[in-house]
């Protein structure tokens, strides 16, 4: 976990740290962090939809090939001004991240494993041919922004403040090439429930005709193109009465992700072992922070086998027929832990999965392990 410093002395220390922002990756010495506070703070709604209400301020840092990183700026939230030939608009040279800040029972604010987000963002930037940045210094900038916006962090265990770092190429000319200009910015919004299912299990539509990512591609990077191209399949899923897509890959129909989430299967495997399995990070799967946290926690439990392994639809269907499936769920920063109830596949819904999960949850059926465990309060 990373705590948020709130006293004036620590703010001064953080301010001093930011004087060298990004200097270690650029010969250009950046100036001090500049803070421009909003003259008219907005009222804070009690409850909002995910991603619809933003805080009063944002962080922006510009970069150019000739001058390197410029001074970071915290300014009132507002629109960006982009050239019509901006490379992020024409060629998709952009990426983003997503992390949350929580308010604890002690009133302190905590970021959940933010260094993993910085590491993933740096990896995505390299793949997008965007300039390198100092991960620790960017995190300090984010901490300072959260300090300013701390009143926006909900006093609730079920809500948080969502942080969206974004990195775009702003090259003002046409042509597929490395951008000579870029903009890194961070916006914040209140975050309640990501899905509108009121904690009910989501339904998935599985059809191998659509592929989210492929070997050698950018499926393991958090780029907007990976999400925009999924919309067509998602709306087809809704035509079948499902909320998300269960993404399959290859002739053997490997299970990869569920909508925008990593996926987990808790089952009795082919060898008769109790196992929690999730697909491996082979370049197709996004290395989710919540995914890694679930793996870390369950391995510490040492109560069942925890594996990163390939799973296919044939294996899942066989396990359902033999009643070996205990639970299936998705994970992600926005959704946290999301149970899966139905999978529409080859013309029919695997309602047995939903019934079995419901029976376990309400006690109509017992298993050796029926413990429900939350992971969103574990800080690392």
UniProtKB/TrEMBL annotation:
Keyword Transferase appears in the UniProt entry: yes
UniProtKB keywords: Amino-acid biosynthesis, Aminotransferase, Branched-chain amino acid biosynthesis, Pyridoxal phosphate, Transferase
Cofactor(s) the protein requires to work: pyridoxal 5'-phosphate
GO CC, one annotated term: mitochondrion
InterPro entries, alphabetized: Aminotrans_IV, Aminotrans_IV_CS, Aminotransferase-like, B_amino_transII, BCAT-like_C, BCAT-like_N, BCAT_family
Keyword rRNA-binding attributed: no
Listed EC numbers: 2.6.1.42
Pfam families noted in UniProt: Aminotran_4
Organism superkingdom: Eukaryota
CDD domains according to UniProt: BCAT_beta_family
N6-(pyridoxal phosphate)lysine modification, residue list: 222
Gene Ontology biological-process annotations: L-leucine biosynthetic process; L-valine biosynthetic process
Catalytic activity: L-isoleucine + 2-oxoglutarate = (S)-3-methyl-2-oxopentanoate + L-glutamate; L-leucine + 2-oxoglutarate = 4-methyl-2-oxopentanoate + L-glutamate; L-valine + 2-oxoglutarate = 3-methyl-2-oxobutanoate + L-glutamate
Listed GO MF terms: branched-chain-amino-acid transaminase activity
Similarity remark: Belongs to the class-IV pyridoxal-phosphate-dependent aminotransferase family.
UniProt-recorded name of the protein: Branched-chain-amino-acid aminotransferase
Organism: Salarias fasciatus (Jewelled blenny)
